[in-house]
Predict the 3D structure of the following.
Amino acid sequence: MGVASSLVALIRDLNNRVIKLHERLRAHEPHSDIAEFKTIVLADLQTLLGNIRRLPTNDVLHPTLQPYIVAEYGDYARECMLIEHIALPVILRYDERDHQCAEIVAAIMQDIRCPADMAPRVTVASTQYYWAQPEFRIISIPIGELDSVLGWPDLIHELAHLLLKRWPDLLHPLTTIVQGHFRDERYLLADIGAEAHDYQLQAEAQIKWSQHQEGTWRLELACDAIATYICGPSYGWQHLRLTANLGRDPYQPSPGRAMHDHPADQARLDTIVATLQILGLDTDARDVTCEWWQLRDIQWPTQPPQGYDQYYPPKLLATLAQTVVDGCRRRNVAAFTEQRGDAGPGVIALIDQAWQQLRRDPNGYAAWEQHAMNQWRRNLRAIPHTQKRGTS
Amino acid sequence: MSDLGVLSQQYQELTNLSRQLRHAAMQIHRAYHHIPGGEPNQPLDIVLRQLAEIACFLRDVVGLDDEGQWPEKWLAALPLPTFVVERLRDAHTHDLPLYSKQLTRLAEHLERGIPQLTDTDLDVLDGIILAVGADANAVFRRMMRWA
């Protein structure tokens, strides 16, 4: 079998696989929450099938084009795998607990005045903590998190990723500032006759702060700022909890150490605190910072490693927080300060109360949480959420 | 966002970039080898300019292991991820000076148009495009935990 015929066979096999998945999904009667997603995924499979059938198999006869056709085929094969491994399980396994999570998410969307059509599809089945998949607009949470209000700020962080996908221009004002910052820093380095190593640190940081594929720090920090804008101090407390659970060095990644897609936990904390201060929540910012220091100082060095500020310039962290707050306000996203103390069915207020309760009475927290969640669910079912909040 | 979320986003962006460059390169192959068919997404002159810019970028940075030495204009707007540059640098460890010259020539020839291109230019171009695709595939495997 030559290259051409084996490639044609692979294409035919992929075609058959997509047909099988399409038939499997079409035969499934989905939960009403997820019925629209089923229609979308069926359409995606149909489009994929069309693309596979349009693969220019005649080009396989031209040796110079063969690698390109193989690459094209590979793209479609992976697209098929993404649908099979990520989208289909959400639809086929959707159950009552997923529905309960969807109710929470719908209530959050209402709380923060985001249109319902931006709401994610949810699945309570994650084995990788909370994650969001922007292409399918899926958020997955671990099994135990549905019944644990304290972790829900991380649900808001994942939601922020989807909001940023919908509002890519929210961070545009930051791009020029980031470029200007690193350009100025390079001039300063040149002025003092710095070593090549110093330029290297600057370049690494600039790439992680950029708006391109590798600019993941800017994205993660922006989602931290959005989550803080929405959740207030609860997001800071949850950040402390997660950092303690994972036992990470709060200064990593830092210069000279392995690079990661996620920024250092200390930089994330600094972004959270900056956002709280912009919202006028100075006391909360101080409380979170004090507890962070206490937790950090018993496990890690109290001083950041050399060059740390070049990776996470305090000025950029503060500017990012301000950019996010301005962007959210322009889009009329409800800030935490509008929710605090709300006695109604709001999820944001519930999360805030939960963290206050845990800190006030850790021993009585479990009973309080059980009662509060039951009460919240009763409220939710008694009156449609839309009528309670009076928002459109 | 967990690693899965970050990788998923990176994969999508890399796949889009890889597909865009692949279609551009196929368009050039068709014009060079007079292969009929294909539906061009963009005019050929734009495609040539776009790929010439990428060749210029690689010419400027492939020999510089230290990103701190990269020209400011590229750091501010990277046409390719740094992983692709590393991949190509590793692939040409033993012939980096020659590869730099080939990139210079590829950039010049792309700017002048199809008749100026040579078989070597197209081999160098193929190497770049396939490196971008390989990078996207690597991210996919990490995302699915098959790496």
